[in-house]
Specification:
single chain, 2 helices, transmembrane helix, elongated, 2 strands, transmembrane, 70% helix, two-stranded antiparallel ribbon, mainly alpha
């Protein structure tokens, strides 16, 4: 069961969160702090930086997972 959660549920939640951030225009920059949510309309630079960083992390995790098999 933990392997199923790690391989299927967590990546699915990450992808859904990623597309919700693109759709809504708010990026999640951290868990706590004053600038937890970054609005695409008011701060486009930091928003796209966060989205690019998340994209790189998604691809890195996919590559590491594939190479680990």
């Amino acid at each position: 069961m933990p392997q199923f959660v790690a391989l299927y549920v967590l990546p699915a939640l990450a992808i859904v969160t990623y597309f919700l951030q693109l759709w809504s225009g708010f990026a999640i920059a951290g868990i706590s702090g004053n600038n937890m949510l970054v609005d695409r309309r008011t701060k486009p630079g930091p928003y796209w930086f966060i989205m690019a960083l998340q994209t790189v992390i998604f691809f890195a995790i996919a590559i590491v997972t594939t190479l680990n098999k």
